[in-house]
């Protein structure tokens, strides 16, 4: 089955700096890669996703890149703000149904 | 759109008791997922349904856990009998295709 690894497990940045979270996947058939943000005590929320026919997608301060050859994808957050502090999860799927989640990255943005 | 609805939001019960968690997916979504989240194990997929049919229940920990989806707008996850190690946050998510949208979760504490 699909195995998704996520790094780093924790990340601390200063407000205004950029943050990058990386994930690798094992199944070359995976074709959908979403990212979720989970604030403390809240539900995971879909913040951006990318499909395998696209190499990069951007939404304001958030961007995701995909390298199918290397089987890795990354989340980039620019101009970080304290409200970006949360746990971020990457996921991948080949089936169109079940998502395989990474273990999460705890991001702390310090003022 | 009210989003995915879960009830109860919090449940405290004694070991050995039956626990029933409920979920109403977003109208029009044809897939429904039950997850369990703990600090130790992260986000685990327990079972998912497509068009009310269980597709994969390999994540269900043991026979004490069961899930049903009698119609497109309702699903239950039952634990009988409950044990302290079942304490976790249980999320329901629904999907119209690949993107999944999570409910607010049920925090279960088994004493």
Structure description:
The complex is a heterodimer of chains A (111) and B (111). Chain A is an all-beta fold and 111 residues long. Chain A is built from no helices and 11 strands. Chain A has strands at 4-7, 10-14, 19-25, 32-38, 45-51, 56-59, 62-67, 72-77, 86-92, 100-101, 105-110. In chain A, the strands form 2 sheets. In chain A, strands 2, 4, 5, 9, 10 and 11 form a 6-stranded mixed beta sheet that branches. A 5-stranded antiparallel beta sheet of chain A has the order 1-3-8-7-6, with no helix packed on it. Chain A is globular. The model of chain A has no long low-confidence stretch (mean pLDDT 94). Chain B is mostly beta strands and 111 residues long. Chain B is built from no helices and 11 strands. In chain B, the strands form 2 sheets. In chain B, strands 2, 4, 5, 6, 9, 10 and 11 form a 7-stranded mixed beta sheet that branches. A 4-stranded antiparallel beta sheet of chain B has the order 1-3-8-7, with no helix packed on it. In chain B, a hairpin with a 5-residue loop joins β9 and β10 (101-102). The radius of gyration of chain B is 13 Å and the shape is globular. The mean pLDDT of chain B is 95.
